[in-house]
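Please predict the structure of the following assembly.
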Amino acid sequence: MVRAMSTRYDALGVDTQGVEGSLKRLGVIIESTFDFNAASPILPLGYFANVIRITDDVGIAISTDGVGTKILVAQQMDRYDTVGIDCVAMNANDIVCVGARPISMVDYIAVQRLDDRQLEELATGLREGARQAGINIPGGEIAQVREMLHGSRDGLAFDLVGTCIGTVHPDRLIVGEDVRPGDVVIGLASSGVHSNGFTLARHALFERGGLRMGDPVAGVGRPVGEALLEPTRMYVRAVVEMMDRGLGLRSLAHITGDGLMNLARVRAAAGFVIDEPLAIPPIFTAIAELGGIAPAEMYTVFNMGTGFCVVATAGDADDIVAIAQRHGHTAAVIGYTVADQRRRVWLPRAGLVGEGKTFRANDERAPAPPSAES
Amino acid sequence: MVRAMSTRYDALGVDTQGVEGSLKRLGVIIESTFDFNAASPILPLGYFANVIRITDDVGIAISTDGVGTKILVAQQMDRYDTVGIDCVAMNANDIVCVGARPISMVDYIAVQRLDDRQLEELATGLREGARQAGINIPGGEIAQVREMLHGSRDGLAFDLVGTCIGTVHPDRLIVGEDVRPGDVVIGLASSGVHSNGFTLARHALFERGGLRMGDPVAGVGRPVGEALLEPTRMYVRAVVEMMDRGLGLRSLAHITGDGLMNLARVRAAAGFVIDEPLAIPPIFTAIAELGGIAPAEMYTVFNMGTGFCVVATAGDADDIVAIAQRHGHTAAVIGYTVADQRRRVWLPRAGLVGEGKTFRANDERAPAPPSAES
């Protein structure tokens, strides 16, 4: 199976394609650093971001992520002004998931050689991402490491990684401890594939499907290369406004690799029924059809139209949707929470249920909303 | 000329091999993000780390760096438990240079595939680095991006990048504003090549010199591959103790790419005369001889034996040397400061003077110490 793997050390405890052993051992080794000083991380490895208690009032959230093999598409399109937005979004969207406000991101750019146009376009994308997220970029590193890189355009291979920090009161993290049955799940639409699953997407569209970058895709309305390069949507300002308004936010989930299974990272013993999902962008239909990919695999790898989820008290759902819409997002209540020790995610319309990291076909009825039960 | 280029956007304003244009434009674009929120970076781009003012009392220092092409040597040696130490050292040694205490580092590991032994060894090195620096590792990212990587051992190509944060009172940064003529420069010995200049070192030793990894090098006493993999020395605990003791620290310089020219990053109009340098480790002699590399180039690319410099008031020199030695470092007063608008660095024994980023041959006498003038 062709699949991009990208993990925040969070496959720990889950047997994902036989990699359990190495990642688990790596996690144990890394977690043994937690008591190397007095500023211990507040969360275990594997949440969207971790938080360091700096003082009684100041916590610093931190998260690092790269753009992955979306970079290969940028090279093939010879266009470098969008992946910087992805780099900021992948990190800043993670930072808000612990209830923090992103403030700064540093970037690491590895290049084969210093190419004027490429660097300027990369910087332009980073600046646009920073603008969208309302963060600054206080520094970065450009490493010229020609022999370490490979790509789809010789001499212009590169990698792009960011590390974002944010602030949060160390006693006011949002990590899903308070999710209760009957809470609502509000979905914010993605712009497409975002920055996950590109190894599978490229395999389906180009290798199996035989498309070229400039070819149009049914329903997409523009060349497939352009559609794939569409930047990851930035949810930061909308979510920060939800926090500032003191709404009943129970958990926040950036939908990246593992798709809607990211909901299941919550601390509470909660399951999620997504009975009214957002529309599936046509690029995913094209990937599934050209690649012959089953729904379980599609939903495990891709966001399938939902880029961010807000789990909240039902009474605040309308306000949350309204804030998201005012920030330009397509948003709606897409489901509800139930009590579930196994933290499953049900997708009734797709006929799937997910547990751990993966979805599988499911004929059984999803649990009804708690309010209908009582 | 073969040379590893690695920059913190700090070649800005300096014409380094014709790359001025692209880096300068990139710097201008990135620096335009500084006012995207209220937590503006305190320093311009290009110092060892930047600092964000979180509250009136809390500043967060942040720096990102990779290990560079030392990674190719690790692959050839098939040994992965040392570069994690380099990764921590490259970042944590930078953080102390602004007067901050390192607290946490996140890492980004890009791999071709998840290899149990490789990941475990990488994690072991990161933990050892964290232990030496007294920091924790609250998270990280493992990206499986086979098609984006190239290396010296197929399937085991990887990249390793860290981002370190530290704390510093925002009004008590050490950035070399107060360097005065007659201050002393204290050098702390490096362990060898550290993590800079590996492209040139490999070219000299293996391509021009014809050595193989297992070959001994004159004066080194062990195989060249092992000598090259020697981890970057961690200066964190020694420097933090110097801070805690309230000694008269004027500026702190991690000696990485650009060698002792890193001294010239200070804010003050100061020059540096290194008249009593630390011993040059034999690996550098081997590189220079086998590669036919002139002294100016050697001192521009390599640390040449001095991995960290503390510029301090003369009266505190003995205490600083004693602290460094108690932490296991070879340390000594290696020079003194003079007034110099051009921020030059004189190396009288090597017959060199440096300005901007590079050293050149110099027959003129270095300025005498100010005390001798008066």
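Chain A touches chain B through 86 residues (CB under 8 Å). The CA atoms of residues 264 and 343 of chain A lie 5 Å apart.
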